[in-house]
Design brief:
Blueprint: H1 3-44, E1 77-81, E2 85-90, E3 96-105, E4 111-116, E5 121-124, E6 140-145, E7 149-159, E8 162-171, E9 176-184, E10 190-200, H2 206-211, E11 213-219, E12 224-228, E13 231-236, E14 241-248, E15 251-257, E16 263-271, E17 278-289, E18 294-303, H3 306-310, H4 331-346, H5 352-366, H6 368-383, H7 385-394, H8 398-412, H9 421-424, H10 427-439, E19 461-467, E20 471-474, H11 476-495, H12 504-520, H13 525-549, H14 552-563, H15 571-589
Antiparallel strand pairs: 1-2, 2-3, 3-4, 5-10, 6-7, 7-8, 8-9, 9-18, 10-17, 11-12, 11-14, 13-16, 14-15, 15-18, 16-17, 19-20
Length: 590
């Protein structure tokens, strides 16, 4: 081998060794980078480890034997359920994100999911450098089960010294989930809680459902109140709240403080009329005091049913509006009369339409004495009309005529308010049913005649357009109610003497039914049927009383005999006559 060959071979070996060295160095660097990337990815995307947890698939739950903690936190959906409610719980964040009410369907016969969104959360703030909120944690679950119900325990370790433990318990016969919190290694005496809740639409009319959104609350001193949510509502409550409830039509949610009270409660709710898929977005922030690093509360998720809510014995039943605002006086009529009567009839398992008929007959029968008195007074006024016409010609001045009219009534023993006062006793029952029927969940999705759901409007014709102040559909019960109201007004006008000096009163009874037709066109079919049938009963009742119980000849004879007796004016009549006399003298001075 010559000198050139040796030099060439040596250069080839040097190049080969250099290549191997450089390649080894690059592979080592790439491997280290890959390992670093894998570690970083693993931190943000934990592997789904083999665990003693059954991931949610339709009705999957944690099995009873799976009581050991999972070695690696996993983002799994767990489920708790009983005969009434089913809730989904995410191990990422430890939140209840979905609630299904098992015994109800939406108007369109789909499973009634009250809320279903990963943004639904009931979280709290943490005072650590790395973790600021319980939502940021991955929790490892375990199951505890006893004769009362099931519990899912979620545990998250921030470091060897600090742990967060959340326990959700659902008893077998309960509509509420008990939420318990335990903080280990934290120097905190209060949990700053945030409740974000987006409620899904469940009823036929989105507008009607949105109009019934209310936030109810009760203080530890017993004071209780509510506010309606229209568009956007911000409200700050006083200290010491026992419970806070969100009512959306026929269903409600409520957070109930168990051993403490809620403080610094702030509500920020949005009722977007353009969103037809959701009823309201409710954000509630409050403080929950810790005792020995522990706190708990109940989360009611269920129907807005009076008996169910009353069973909690803390005033939750006030979320059923049996009489509020200007109608607050009828709340007691509903509680003490209407509701017991309805529950009794409903226990007989009758059709709800038939129950409305029976309740109408019972109420009208109970008030029949006052109805008779009213019609009797109307008959007396009608028999006095010829004499009033003579007085009207004799005293053209209205004030002078009024004085003489009162004298005539007093001498004949006629009370001019006798026809009005008895009818006032019927008013509380009319208003009570107006509050009772649309808020009673029992009417929901019950059919009667052509109405497929008594809790919402019946429609025999859907219009391709919307009529202002009326709507885009035709309710037959509303039309029947309006027609019967007009017929009743016409019947009463013919039976009641008219004041020629006030012609507007002649047509006013016909105006109200027309005006109210657009309002009631959107209301519950059970309510419009009740008013329609009530009008028919009134027409029949008035006809029977006029024909069988009122003898106009005997009444007229009695009125004439009364004129021959010395009349004694009541204090009210004396005061009224004195006021009329003073007005008459003042008018003469002018």
């Amino acid at each position: 081998m010559d000198k050139n060959s040796v030099i060439g071979f040596s250069l080839l070996v040097a190049l080969l060794l250099g290549y191997l060295a450089i390649n080894n160095y690059e592979q080592k660097g790439a491997l280290e980078k890959k390992q670093a990337d894998s570690i970083a990815y693993a931190k943000t995307h934990p592997k789904i480890a083999t665990a003693q947890v059954v991931a949610k698939n339709n009705t999957d739950t944690l099995s009873q034997k799976d009581t050991s903690l999972v070695a690696t936190p996993v983002d799994t959906v767990l489920n708790l359920d009983n005969a009434f409610v089913s809730v989904d719980i995410h191990t990422k964040g430890g939140n209840i994100t979905k609630a299904l009410l098992k015994n109800y369907k939406t108007y369109y016969q789909k499973p009634l999911v009250l809320f279903d969104n990963t943004e639904n959360q009931l979280s709290f703030a943490l005072n650590t450098a790395s973790i600021k909120n319980s939502n940021e944690l991955y929790y490892t679950p375990s199951l505890q089960e006893n004769e009362k119900g099931k519990s899912i325990v979620l545990t998250a370790s921030i470091n060897p010294q600090q742990q967060v433990v959340i326990t959700y318990t659902l008893e077998t016969n309960a509509h509420h989930v008990t939420c318990s919190y335990k903080l280990i290694g934290f120097a905190m005496n209060t949990l700053v809680m945030n409740w974000d809740n987006t409620v899904a639409r469940t009823e036929k009319s989105s507008d009607a459902e949105k109009q019934n959104v209310q936030e109810h609350y009760k203080y530890s001193n017993g004071d209780q109140d509510y506010f309606s949510i229209r568009d956007e509502k911000k409200e700050r409550l006083k200290e010491g709240v026992q419970w806070i409830g969100l009512r959306t039509g026929y269903f409600s949610q409520a957070l109930i403080a168990k051993n403490n009270v809620f403080n610094a409660s702030n509500c920020n709710a949005i009722n977007d009329t353009k969103d037809t898929n959701h009823v309201v977005f409710n954000r509630l922030s409050f403080q929950l005091p810790l005792q020995n690093n522990e706190a708990s509360m109940d989360w009611y998720i269920g129907p807005n049913d009076y008996a169910t809510l009353k069973s909690y014995q803390i005033g939750l039943e006030e979320m059923v509006p049996l009489g509020t605002g200007i109608f607050a006086f009828v709340k007691y009529v509903n509680k003490w009369l209407i509701l017991p009567m309805f529950n009794l009839l409903n226990s007989w398992q009758l059709n709800l339409g038939l129950i409305i008929i029976l309740m109408t007959l019972i109420i009208r029968l109970a008030l029949s004495f006052f109805t008779y008195k009213s019609y009797l007074s109307t008959a007396k006024m009608r028999l006095m009309k010829p004499e009033l016409d003579v007085l009207r010609e004799k005293f053209p001045d209205q004030q002078a005529f009024s004085v003489e009219q009162m004298k005539l009534y007093r001498s004949a023993g006629v009370n001019p308010l006798g026809g009005c006062l008895p009818m006032l006793f019927q008013l509380p029952f009319l208003v009570a049913m107006y509050c009772f029927i649309p808020t009673n969940i029992v009417f929901r999705q019950v059919s009667f005649l052509w109405a497929d759901d008594l809790s919402t409007f019946d429609s025999i014709l859907n219009l391709p357009f919307s009529i202002p102040l009326y709507g885009d559909h035709v309710s037959l019960f509303t039309l029947l109610m309006t027609a019967s109201s007009l017929f009743l007004a016409l019947y009463n006008r013919n039976m009641t003497p008219q004041d020629p000096n006030n012609p507007m009163m002649k047509y006013l009874p016909f105006v109200f039914p027309i005006m109210l037709m657009g309002v009631f066109n959107k209301m519950a079919a059970a309510l419009t049927f009740y008013y329609f049938f009530g009008n028919m009963v009134s027409i029949a009742q008035q006809f029977i009383i006029q024909k069988l119980f009122i003898n106009e000849e005997a009444i007229h004879k009695q009125l004439q005999e009364n004129k021959n007796k010395p009349a004694t004016a009541s204090k009210w009549q004396q005061k009224l006559e004195e006021m009329q006399r003073l007005q008459q003298e003042k008018a003469k001075k002018k």
